[in-house]
Amino acid sequence: MSQTTPNEKKMSLSFEIFPPKKDDEFDNVFSLLRDLKKLNPDFISCTYGAGGSRAGKTIEIASFIQKELQIDAIAHITCVGFTKEDLDRNCSALKEAGVNHVLALRGDRPLSMTDEQFNSREFFYAADLVRYLKEHTDLQISGACYPEKHFESPSLESDLQHLKAKVDAGVTSLVTQMFFDNTYFYRFLDKARAMGIEVPIHAGIMPITTAKQLGTTVSLSGSSVPKKLADIIATYGDDKEDMRKAGIDYAISQIRDLKEHGVDGVHIYSMNKLKTTTEICSQL
Ligand code: FAD
Fold first, then answer.
1. Mind listing the domains of the chain with CATH numbers?
2. Is the CB–ligand 1 distance for residue 162 below 6 Å?
3. Ligand 1 in contact with 47 (CB < 6 A)?
């Protein structure tokens, strides 16, 4: 009788990309995607500009991934400043574009939003968006989760309770916020499973290739920086190429450890960097 150990389980591989800021950079993204296809990802997700800016661009890219490249595409979609009409329009555009999978997010409060607008928003949380999508569309729905808790949450336990409600509303897989210390992810995973969250959870890995990038990333994500990564920055931060190599090695060691622990999937925040993403994948 054959027995499957955790590290023999197939770990899915996926990438996140973002739409370029300028229209004339679009060709580069399509060419990047063609190259990413060679790495054989299980899916590629495309982010959504905060507050819904350039929403059409996310859909256009997701459509290219799905229809041209025949790779499962996930279009990120937020709801914080949205009315139901806005959402219906977006869902029709997704359908027309042949995109049938979204990452349903609440999104962050745009700076331009007044307290009154924020407090009377139509969709309070991502779970409300999930419920609406489930009722009005046949989209497949993924959601976001936070191994070190979401920054607004008083505790990991409270965040997990809301996450459970989001999954119960119709989320079929989760992608995590980036983390640099796998122990946070394993702790989160154990707690999530103990609470009955059974959907696949894709671990978000962000390769850090410059010292500056780490600063920006940490301030946006709130993720902890373990001593090992801080030491890498201190040692190699001033040397561009050495820092790049050390950052790639760090991401690879995180991914290898996750694979040994039998995780469902690894989602690489590619930052639209082909060379870094390819180097990581070729060494796995
Ligand atoms: P929610 O799941 O709604 O959670 C937000 C907070 O509310 C949490 O603290 C939660 O615990 C709490 N909460 C939930 N329900 C309740 C309730 N009933 N009562 C009280 N509290 C509650 N942003 C973008 O603008 N574009 C993107 O493309 C994008 N992609 C992302 C991809 C991933 C994988 C991740 C992890 C984040 C992404 N974000 C993106 C950022 C995200 O929009 C923010 O983190 C946002 O602040 C929370 O979104 P959410 O969907 O996780 O919110």
1. 12-282 (3.20.20.220)
2. yes
3. yes
Q: What is the rounded distance in angstroms from the CA atom of residue 62 to the CA atom of residue 142?
A: 15
Residues 6 or more apart in contact with residue 14 via CB below 8 angstroms: 41, 42, 43, 44, 45, 202, 265, 266, 267, 268
Q: Work out the number of other CB atoms within 10 angstroms of the CB of residue 104.
A: 27
CB 222 within 8 A of CB 153: no
Query: Could you give the CA distance from residue 73 to residue 78 in angstroms, rounded to a whole number?
Result: 16
pLDDT of residue 41: 98
Please give the helix or strand (H or E) that residue 174 lies within, else none.
strand 173-176
- pLDDT single digits (tens) 15-66: 999 999 888 888 999 999 999 999 999 999 999 986 556 778 999 999 999 9
pTM, rounded to two decimals: 0.96
127 lines ligand 1 (CB under 6 A): yes
The pLDDT mean for the chain works out to 94
**Amino acid residing at 145:** C
Q: Phi and psi dihedrals of 97, rounded to 5?
A: -85, 0
Each residue of 230-243: pLDDT tens digit? 999 999 999 999 99
Residue 237 near residue 203, CB atoms below 8 Å: no
Q: How far is the centre of ligand 1, averaged over its atoms, from the C-alpha of 126 (Å)?
A: 6
Token code pair at residue 279: 């180097």
User: CB within 8 A of 197, min separation 6: which ones?
Assistant: 160, 163, 164, 167, 174
* Token duo for residue 14: 């996926």
Collapsing DSSP to helix, strand or coil, 143 comes out as: strand
Please tell me the least confidently modeled range out of 198-202, 208-212, 214-218. Answer: 214-218
